[in-house]
Amino acid sequence: MTWSSALKDTARAGLTIEKASLEPMVALRGACGVAIVIGLTLWLGTPRLAVSSAFGAFASGLATFQRSWRPRPVLALAVAMGLAFSTFVGYMAIANHVLFVVLLALWTLLAGMAWAIGPVSGMVSSQMVAVMLFTVTLPTSVLGALHHAGLIAFGGLVQAALIVVFPIRPWGRQRDALADALAAEADYARRLRHDPVATFDPQPLMDARSAAAMTPRQARRRPGQLGGPRGLAERLRPVLASLADPVLGAPPEGPERDRVRELLGAAAAVLDAVAHAVRWGRPVKVSPEAMAALDVPDETRPVLTGAAQRSALRLIVLLADVVESADERVESTRPTVPEERRHLLRPSVPRLVPVGLRALRREARWSSAIGRHAVRVTAVVSLGYALGSMLPLGHGYWAPMTSVMVMRPDFAQTYSRGVARFAGTVVGVWLAGGLMALFHPGMYVCAGLAVLCIGLMYLLMRTGYSVASTCIAAYVVFLLGIAGEGWSQTVWARLALTLLGGLLALAAYAVFPAWETLRLRDRLADWLDANGRYALAVLARYAHPDVRKPRRVREALLDQRAARLEWEEAVARAEKEPVRHRGISRRAERAAESAMAMMGRATMLMEAHLPDSDAPPSPGAEAFAAALRDALPDATAAVRERRRPDWTAPHEAYAAWRAAVDEEGVAVRATELLLDAVDELADAVAPRRRREAPGRPTA
Question: How far apart are CA 691 and CA 694, in angstroms?
Fold first, then answer.
């Protein structure tokens, strides 16, 4: 993609306004928190203290809207305490400009590295830098700095208290995540009726797993409907795929295929009913037609045989368990004994410290995209602060504030947010500035307008960053109106310095990029390695059925999903980057992705028919697993180094396995699909030689 096309696409993405589900009551609660803090501070303090406290309440409320599964009061308090500390330290250093620039650079570097912990940590850390840049410009003493820091913490405390006192749909995010996973399974069952080899996006299952992780204290209060359906949904996916598969399941056409379609339709109806019950905390209501379709067939219905019959019986049992686990009232809770490990353990906040330190240490290298982003944003913010201070516009902090809020570790988000930030700032500042110029509102009217703007921002923030930037820009103008700043100076200074900060951010990524395009082969190799380890874990169960290690297969599956997600995200980012050298062509990229999906699907089909513990061991599976284990490291290295992977040894082991068995079982046929997938991968990633022109002699 050329630079002009990339800039056009990112600008269009930044200015796009999307339809999103609004949460008016949650937005109203957040706006009320800001209103309480501003009103109390204006009543008991000064306008400048009101401005400072308003930013604390605003930032704490904004953090609770981020996609995090931790309790919202904890997020609000954590953000408020971090803002209070950074603001107080900034006040201590602002008297010496050199010392403040050093502190700002250090703070920004840490904020950039915080993206290694997670997107919520990165966003919150960037927000801390932006708020510190604004609040330290309000003149005060050391005691006043303590007052400002305390008021910022008070704003977070108010937001947390409102969340506790006025809970709105408790466990709502966890319910939505689990319901989305069940609905995704239902959609998968419907698509399998028409496309027996349809693909499945595991992202809803990954989100449901993340939402299910909690502390023992949270698990004791968890509604019973959130306890069991997730694990059953995980087990349903391979059963649905094996039932619909034309190779391992029923024939592609005929009475047995019609029976499979009937079972898949009934499964979709049941899963949709359970998803609706979980989402709204109601009993499960399944239609009689769906229940009748799931009954054991009589003489009037075709009878499935072989692997298809085993899959159908397992599907009926799992669906009954799903309905039973979710069919209870929201008030009922499930007692959780920590020794039973009936929930995914989420580490407490103190235990997250070593995890975060390990993540920072892992990304603190020059080759890391997070590390390069931290260096990039530090240089831009420091330069923006220096230029903003030298320009005779006042409000010099707006340039670095814009840069730190729009910059992200990847090209597409940085450019799209930069365009959206400037467009939203222009609209918001002109609207708010026009109101200030026409009506000259007083202090309390400005406070009311600021609360209105922040309420609109909370309500509409998911519709697009340009809309949120418009509301934030107007909010800042009205806050400065509370402090007595002139509206005309606010408008022109903010527009000019916002443009400066945005241009610095965009130029920094052009001069000092970290293209995802060049690492596509590494992501593909990681996915191949994860797929191979998943296949080895499943084959080990066939080789030694008496060795029961279910966690090994489960952990390998989770690693495979994470590697696939990283590949898909890398491809999505690479498609928007203005880089011609991709390391892998578009055609090869699509072919490799299809082959890797087929490899994972073949392993999933084997997992759906794991042998019982009393089944005889399979020497052929053990020999094939050994050959695959030996070939996998060189194959992943070949993908990285643009060589053709060599799968000769696995092919030979499979031929011996197939010749040694009298009847081909599920494992043998699924292994054949797996070998077809790795052969397609080898064809996709192998370097292509240039064709000789006709009539030209070869070397």
Answer: 9
